[in-house]
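User: What would this chain look like folded?
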Amino acid sequence: MELKAVNLEMPEECNLILGQTHFIKTVEDLYEIMVGISSQVKFSIAFCEASGDCLIRIAGNDLSLEKIATKNAQAVGAGHSFIILLKQAYPINFLNAIKQCPEVCKIYCATANPVQVIVAETEQGRGILGVIDGFSPKGIETTEDVNARHNLLRRIGYKL
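Assistant: Here's the prediction, encoded as structure tokens.
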């Protein structure tokens, strides 16, 4: 078995959701979730099929994001994994619906940070062991940091 750290490409002002699913129907179900929640979101989904033709299945409404999501899916190459790249929206608005999708087994991360996917490769194929999301902590928050966090959440509309 070989272990690899795969860096995902992340366009500016983008977030991504990385998960695992179990059925080809997922790509259409996730598309419907995305557009059903937000009419303004720009997104692409790339899903790595794990049997049959073993194709990367793609859906979305932004061609530039489709190209990058596909490139990321090829780099990870893990069966039944999916990557959603999104702009003009935050993952928090979609995660519960995605988790409720009957085919979705796991969400590895939802982030705007740099992401490395830890992939194991055997003679059969590849699987995701986990992710490195962003960077290690550099300290402990101060009272000033707490106030900045509170202000940010209110400014972007997630707290009153």
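The mean pLDDT is 96. If you want, I can go into more detail on any region.
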